[in-house]
Amino acid sequence: MLNLSVTQRRDLKARAHPLNPVVIIGNAGLTPAVLDEIERSLKSHDLLKIRVMNDDREARASMLQEICTILHAGSVQHIGKILVVYRPLDIPLASPTKRKKGKPLTKKQLGNR
User: Fold this and answer.
1) Nearest to residue 71, comparing CAs of 111, 43, 109, 107?
2) To which CATH superfamily is domain 6-86 assigned?
């Protein structure tokens, strides 16, 4: 299971807010087919919202724990029937371009940052 710091979870919650649930777990619970679908979704999206159609809070919490341990993901949020899961993509991110050395930035340019 992936452990996330408080600041990472806060940033991921902000990113997850406008997302819609991609996977829905029905009354049958966490079946192998549902786990496969979550795995496929995590391969293309690093952040995932899951809706659970179960009324038992402890069952939803155990589902979230099981998803995170089996798929090596991190638990971001559990609010009501919505679970948010994060697993970083295997694609390395491009490093930010560095500014060319030269003239120092003006006050106006610094203010725009």
Assistant:
1) 43
2) YhbY-like (3.30.110.60)
